[in-house]
Amino acid sequence: MKILPFKIPRTEDVSFLVQNDDEPHLYDTLHQHPEIQITLILQGSGTLFIGDYIGEFNEGDVIIIGENVPHVFRNDKMYYEGLPELRARALSVFLDRKTFGERFFELPETQEVADFFVRAKKGLKIGGKAKEEISILLKNISDATGIDRLIKLLEILRVLSRSSDYVFLSNHIMDTDVQEADGKRLNDVIQFTLNQYHRPIGLEEVSAIANMSPSAFCRFFKQRTRKTYVNFLTEVRISKACNYLQEKDATIIQTSYKVGFNNLSHFNRKFKKITGYTPTSYRRKHHLIA
């Protein structure tokens, strides 16, 4: 069985699914599905995992997730505190290679879409003009029916397949032949890390979450994610720091301690290495300081 396989609840009277999520938080279990997923974040923020990528997601983001790519959208902690004014809203389209028929995407005229499907296996974040166009089309497709809905989907695929306004999220096409038990271990480790990143975490403690010895856990985690757990934990902390630094009243030193660093210079080095910015220049980029 695949890593926490997820069945998209598509009925027999539609060829692809348009899903509107409006919940306290988005579905937060590491999973994969054979459908390509095109998602617009309408409201909410948090941490995104796609393949070996860890980063933040925010309102307005357009994210593409390829076939059978492990992923999870984990909203920020405040979305789990039962505050009625906080909602996580997303609009997603799920389609597969047979949506328009068995061999539709093998036609010469659809080759550019087939190429896009291959790029999507690394996960994509859409930007620029394409992001604006896709956002509008996704909102329109939600209300469309019949052949109009199919036409809107083709328009979305046309824009995505021809655009260069995107960045790859994952560095690798991830191994999808992962057993379900291993997927559960990974999910447990991810959830534990997201809840405890703000304090020291040793390999003994996290390997116990996976019910493995530290040495076996290190091998397991590296094989499944192509990174060490220490690097993974650091990336989670820096992703959270990016969120905190976008708050005007959060100082850099407060942020470093808040995300689990006990040394400011170490935090600054890791932040620059992962984001390409110093914490100060990152805040300037987001127009939070003069």
TrEMBL record:
Gene3D superfamilies found in the cross-reference section: Homeodomain-like (1.10.10.60), Jelly Rolls (2.60.120.10)
Annotated keywords: DNA-binding, Transcription, Transcription regulation
Superkingdom of origin organism: Bacteria
Key word Transcription regulation present: yes
HTH araC/xylS-type domain mapped to chain residues: 187-285
InterPro entries: AraC-bd, Homeodomain-like_sf, HTH_AraC, HTH_AraC-typ_CS, RmlC-like_jellyroll, RmlC_Cupin_sf, Tscrpt_reg_AraC-type_HTH
Name this protein carries in UniProt: AraC family transcriptional regulator
